[in-house]
Specification:
Blueprint lengths: L1 H4 L5 E4 L5 E8 L2 E7 L7 H7 L2 H4 L3 E6 L4 E3 L2 E5 L10 H19 L4 E5 L1 E3 L12 E3 H14 L1 E2 L2 H9 L8 E7 L5 H10 L4 E5 L20 H10 L4 E5 L12 H15 L5 E6 L7 H9 L3 E5 L11 E5 L4 H9 L5
Helix pairs in contact: 5-11
Length: 338
């Protein structure tokens, strides 16, 4: 009926071996098989012909029946109500839909890159800084601007929502985080705000009293007052999360000691505005039982392992953004597969 309405002649193919095809039509000079099925079936004859192109010279087939629109190799399936639309452009339309679907899938799997840095200042002072944690101010800005040209920066908690949802990500997103709460961060945050780049500060609360210092450096850390002033001044760009009560490798702790470390940190940080439920493992080291504890507390674990976040696997993966990015950012940033 569909073919007659379209003014097309009907052709039927039958072979003594039992091979038969309901209808044949010509499209762009090629023969196209058309099968109509009352129930879903394997369309054995159709598949036999398609699998022997050197013999039958047929490359495409359409199966009409109780199906959704779909494609299985050279076989296009469509529901009955689409039967009338089988015209000269039908196959090209289906190919276009297929390409669009593939593109949407790619967007859904677009990774969210989460970067971590520590100290930023104009000059490196070996008496107060660790070179592996330090980036020169202008170099840091150049790195960020390179990334900004490729990615849209969003807050960490917003990125987490994207990862756990089923929504397509129509943009390439990145997140900026800073560990340890070094005092030098105060000087770079205003510039980040000018660039409309949100940042999450992972803090060790023990050091907020201004008296306790980490042994690895004599540079001062942010005090509680410093942090409160920054949050009140830039409430839309700063979030705070836990880096543990003290800066200790979690993999060296028993589960009880780890739980104590986490709870002490949460107790101190809960009173800060813009506090979010994330926990960044120092050095990225952890144990599976620690992960399970955080999950039970609805705290999202955060690592430094260089992996990219495609879909949420229970943790946030970060990449180090120190001065070495000046060499590898150019390799990554223009890679269209990211």
């Amino acid at each position: 009926m569909y073919k007659r309405k379209m003014g097309r002649k009907l052709y039927y193919f039958h072979k003594d071996s039992g091979l038969e095809i309901d209808f044949l039509m010509r499209y762009k000079g090629e023969c196209v098989l058309v099968e109509c099925k009352v129930r879903t079936g394997n369309a054995k004859s159709t598949r036999t012909i398609l699998n022997h192109q050197e013999k039958y010279h047929v490359k495409h087939a359409i199966k009409i029946g109780d199906y959704n629109v779909g494609r299985d190799g050279a076989l296009l399936t469509i529901p009955y109500l689409y039967g009338f639309s089988i015209d000269g452009d039908m196959i090209e339309k289906r190919k276009l839909i297929y390409r669009i679907r593939r593109r949407l899938l790619h967007l859904r799997l677009q990774p969210i890159r989460v970067f971590c840095f520590h100290q930023v200042s104009d000059e490196f002072d070996p008496s107060t800084m660790w070179e592996c944690d330090w980036t020169q101010t202008e170099q840091f800005k150049r790195n960020i601007l390179q990334l900004k040209a490729e990615y849209t920066f969003i807050a960490l908690d917003n990125a987490h929502k994207h990862l756990v949802s089923d929504k397509f990500r129509i943009r390439k997103y990145a997140v900026l985080t800073c560990d340890d709460g070094w005092a030098s961060i105060k000087d770079i945050i205003p510039w980040l705000v000018e660039q409309d780049i949100p940042i999450t500060l992972f803090i060790n609360p023990l050091y907020l009293d201004g008296k306790h210092f980490q042994l690895r450096s004599t540079e001062k850390l942010l005090t509680k007052n410093n942090l409160e002033v920054l949050i009140s001044k830039y409430p839309h760009h700063i979030t705070v999360a836990s880096h543990g009560f003290t800066h200790i490798d979690a993999s060296t702790l028993s589960l009880d000691d780890f739980i104590s470390n986490v709870k002490e940190a949460e107790k101190e940080l809960v009173n800060f505005a813009n506090k979010i439920n994330f926990y960044a493992f120092t050095y990225g080291h952890h144990k599976n039982e620690q992960m399970m504890f955080l999950a039970g507390q609805n705290i999202v674990p955060v690592l430094i392992d260089g992996e990219k976040n495609y879909n949420f696997d229970g943790r946030i993966h970060r990449e180090s953004l120190e001065k070495k990015i000046s060499t590898y950012v150019e390799i990554f940033i223009f890679n269209t597969n990211l």
